[in-house]
From TrEMBL:
Superkingdom classification of source: Archaea
Signal peptide start and end residues: none
Domain HVO-A0261-like N-terminal span(s) in chain numbering: 18-92
Pfam family name, one: HVO_A0261_N
Name of the protein in its database record: ArsR family transcriptional regulator
Amino acid sequence: MASTQEEQSDTNENIDWDMVSYAISSQYRLTVLERLAEGPATPTRIAADTDRHVANISRSIQRLRKRGQVELLVPEDRKKGRVYGLTEEGQQSWHVIESQELV
């Protein structure tokens, strides 16, 4: 049993709780992470899939991008059809949010 507690302690030490907290402090950021965990998508697709306003989704994507949780998967100069996906940090944050039932 001690090894299980040690493993859990090691796992908790490797969690970036600041990133997790930032994501769960906004329903829109949480929505973006959840949807992108399913696979890459455009802001319009995320908005349609989640019944949210595209402006709020776009804003949340940009904020998560600044925090290193979301990345643009197409060239920066592309204005239409911009596809986004989760970074490794975003995937880790989403895993923690799900596994710790923070949703």
